Amino acid sequence: MNPAYPSKPAPQWRQSLKHLARSVWRHRVLYLMLLPGLLYFLIFRYWPLWNAQIAFRDFQPTLGVWGSPWVGLQHFLEFFNSYYFSQLLVNTLVISVAKIALGIPPAILLAIALHETSRRFLSRAVQTMSYLPHFLSWVIVYGILLAMLSPSEGLINSGLRALGLEPVPFLTSTATFQPVVVLSEVWKETGWSAILFLAALLSINPALYEAAAIDGASRWQQVRHISLPGIVDVLVLVVLLKIGSILDAGFHQIFVLYSLPVYSVGDIIDTWVYRQGIQNFQFSLATAVGLFKGVIGLVLIVVANRLARRFVGTGLY
């Protein structure tokens, strides 16, 4: 090459690409471990989004996605104008908010109790017993609830009859169905939810507790001024994730527990979509409702994250 005409430096984007390639090759083992998870999300999460366009079409399986006629917002308006829309929305929000409000405090209390106990064997036994309900299917939980709450042979109603009181139809009464749904969810998931808070507590520097003890702080003062502030970040993360899915009130649970007499308080968006969209083959309507839930969840989580960063100083991103 003629020294009188020096070569031009490579463009910045090309240098960045080479740097990225070298970094990927250097950490190729880690990327290979990450590959199955990436493929899962690409195939089962992101690729189906392409077919979500049937929410704006009158989808007919014989015509396919592209061949089905375009109808715009017709399915969204059909859902919004439905006679049951307000009832479905209220039921979904009431059950979801109650699960969040009543589900998080017991998980925090359980995590703190496990963290504070000095008897390791007792702590491990309680942990195991509290985790087990999470792995039970809602069909099995329904059997347990039926054995406890059945008007004829349930344990609780047998006790009420022994006291001279009338039995209560817990699972078929509009006054008691929602409390049963919320409390059964709390019982089933408290132990599992406590794992995150317990992990956050274990990550707190033990020197903080030692310094507080030297200064004369009691165990309650240590919990109040060290343990609780130490799990704020995890608490905000959990609340934000639950807010993002607030329109998912628990389809599997409701589908197993509810019946016709409690539709007015137990029917949620997902169960209505199952009946209208799946059983009646209205796939476009079901997809439209799914998109509606996704958009609302996205807006809620963005707004909640900004509020959390403003008032608490931490957020999801």
From TrEMBL:
SUPFAM superfamilies: MetI-like. InterPro entries: MetI-like, MetI-like_sf, UgpAE/MalFG_permease. Residues 89-304 form the ABC transmembrane type-1 domain. It is a multi-pass membrane protein. It holds the Pfam family BPD_transp_1. Its main location: membrane. One of its GO terms (cellular component) is plasma membrane. PROSITE patterns: ABC_TM1 (PS50928). It comes from the Bacteria. The chain crosses the membrane at residues 29-47, 88-114, 135-152, 192-214, 226-247, 285-308. Keywords: Cell membrane, Membrane, Sugar transport, Transmembrane, Transmembrane helix, Transport. One of its GO terms (biological process) is transmembrane transport. It is found in: Cell membrane. Signal peptide: none annotated. Belongs to the binding-protein-dependent transport system permease family. This is Putative multiple-sugar transport system permease YteP. The gene is yteP.
